[in-house]
Amino acid sequence: MEETMRLENKTVIVTGAGSGLGKAVAVAAAKEGAAVVLADINEDAMNKTAQEIRENGQKALCSQVNVCSQESIGQMLTKAVDTFGQVDALVNCAGIFSSIPFLELTEEDWDRMLDINLKGSFLCSQAFIRQLLNQKTGGSLVFLSSISGYIGFTKSAHYCASKGAVRQLSKAIALEFGPSGIRSNVVAPGTIATPMNDWIIKDPKMHAQSVSSIPMGRFGTSQEIASAILFLISDEAAYCTGAELLVDGGQITHC
Ligand SMILES: NC(=O)c1ccc[n+]([C@@H]2O[C@H](COP(=O)([O-])OP(=O)(O)OC[C@H]3O[C@@H](n4cnc5c(N)ncnc54)[C@H](O)[C@@H]3O)[C@@H](O)[C@H]2O)c1
């Protein structure tokens, strides 16, 4: 019997698909049969992800998007629908991190963090949900929170605030659009080996210190986060909405 792929006939939009978690999700979703729409501000990086997907014989469309710009999000959605007919899932992976002591945080630092990590997820989700309602289909959204959305970390108040807020954004969407067959869930990674954490990985002392706080004794991989996301956007999670999946090697189990 021929094995069916979990995301066959689905179109999945992945923001931040040029790097790290977004890239891993895009590649994994394509392997599961999805047509993938890559949306990243970094065109070169996004094109490399697309090339990898196409070399595997799978479908990828690139659209340069700044998640803070409604105009670029609208253009991406139009391109996606024109190419693939409809959209089915949105994975909000675009994001930034910076480590800044609280008293040194400027208003610009705060705005940039909240604009990309929170407002960007809001703008993409609103445009995506409008399209789902036009299509008269259900669909599914995944938001990237973090263990920083559950516990505090020093020198990252702005990041923690953005990741806590994203959890609530997802829950509110789950409530408002459950009746329309639209599911909204959160994945909260612990510390994952992506370019975002190169500054820790490249500092042996900091790396060892960081790993010592993780019961599983290592950083997670992008593929491990992609697996959790794929589950949530697939029909296997048809009854999951408003849920939050911590994928952190046990890092915050003591909290
Ligand atoms: N890596 C981790 O340990 C970790 C842990 C918890 C949560 N997260 C979250 O997961 C998400 C992805 O993180 P990552 O590790 O893959 O980071 P990354 O830096 O490897 O990739 C982020 C991607 O987002 C893109 N991007 C940044 N600003 C953008 C914008 N304005 N518009 C469109 N694209 C933009 C970048 O170009 C990049 O390709 C982030 O929201 C991050 O906060 C990561």
UniProtKB/TrEMBL annotation:
An individual GO BP term: bile acid metabolic process
Record-annotated Ketoreductase domain positions: 10-185
InterPro entries assigned to the protein according to its UniProt record, in alphabetical order: KR_dom, NAD(P)-bd_dom_sf, Sc_DH/Rdtase_CS, SDR_fam
Pfam families the UniProt entry points to: adh_short_C2 (PF13561)
Coiled coil: none
Keywords: Oxidoreductase
UniProt-listed SUPFAM superfamilies: NAD(P)-binding Rossmann-fold domains
Record-level Gene Ontology MF annotations: oxidoreductase activity, acting on the CH-OH group of donors, NAD or NADP as acceptor
Top-level lineage group: Bacteria
NCBIfam families found in the cross-reference section: PRK07231.1, PRK12826.1-2
Name of the protein this chain belongs to: Ketoreductase domain-containing protein
Source species of the chain: Blautia hydrogenotrophica (strain DSM 10507 / JCM 14656 / S5a33)
